[in-house]
Design goal:
about 210 residues, alpha+beta, globular, about 40% strand, Immunoglobulin-like, Lipoprotein, signal, 2 domains, four-stranded antiparallel β-sheet, 15 strands
């Protein structure tokens, strides 16, 4: 038979194990921070600051995968990310201040959209840049709170390009990823004629 001392020891081990299990479960509810050198794909991942770029931490990610048809092209909005930027020096903020046309503090938030624009026509086209409408209804354009890195690009017939759109937003927008809207670019044909006007593209989840 087990003596009382051994029974007490076994009870202590079981209790300790239960406490560790409970603690482990509680910790797993918060996303672990993980440094990455490539694209951030999970909430909590971050890219370390560089001499001329701030530390970037992913707060939210949304895979929209929505395709919109306009005259002469299709626009696929693939992924949206809300990123916290922590800049300890003016140099780390310079690029964003130039792109957004605004003075920034040491901490600010960026909404980044990846999109694919496909030329469905038989001639080359150019696009005049996408814009963002925030959940509060503010329309942001290049050098006015936003920047489209693909603005002005020329796309050959039946070719496609992938690019990015960024905009200054609020931290609270991380819970409103479906409420962002995109303004499609004007599409201009090889003769300089506008074949597709800008229109508002909703990123809200479609109701079934």
């Amino acid at each position: 038979m087990l003596n009382m001392k051994k029974i007490a020891q076994m009870g202590a081990i079981i209790l300790c194990g239960l406490m560790l299990t409970a603690c482990g479960t509680k910790t797993s509810k918060s996303p672990a921070k993980q440094e990455v050198s490539g694209p951030m794909t999970k909430v909590g991942q971050y890219q370390r600051a560089e001499e001329d770029y701030p530390q970037a931490t992913l707060l939210a990610i949304k895979h929209y995968n929505k395709t919109f048809n306009v005259d002469g092209a299709t626009i696929k909005i693939t992924t949206g990310k809300l990123i916290q930027m922590d800049a300890t020096t003016k140099r780390q903020r310079d690029e964003h201040e130039t792109n957004f046309g605004e003075h920034l503090g040491k901490k600010y938030y960026v909404y980044q959209v990846e999109y694919v624009l496909t030329n469905t026509s038989d001639q080359k086209i150019s696009e005049e840049g996408l814009e963002v409408i925030t959940p509060r209804g503010d329309q942001l354009t290049t050098n006015n709170g936003a920047v489209d890195f693909g603005s002005g690009a020329t796309i050959q017939a039946h070719a496609k390009k992938t690019d990015y759109l960024q905009a200054l937003v609020k931290k609270s927008d991380k819970n409103k990823m479906d409420k962002f809207k995109i303004v499609s670019p004007e599409i201009i044909d090889n003769d300089g004629i506008t074949i597709a006007e800008a229109q508002t593209l909703s990123l809200a989840k479609s109701s079934n």
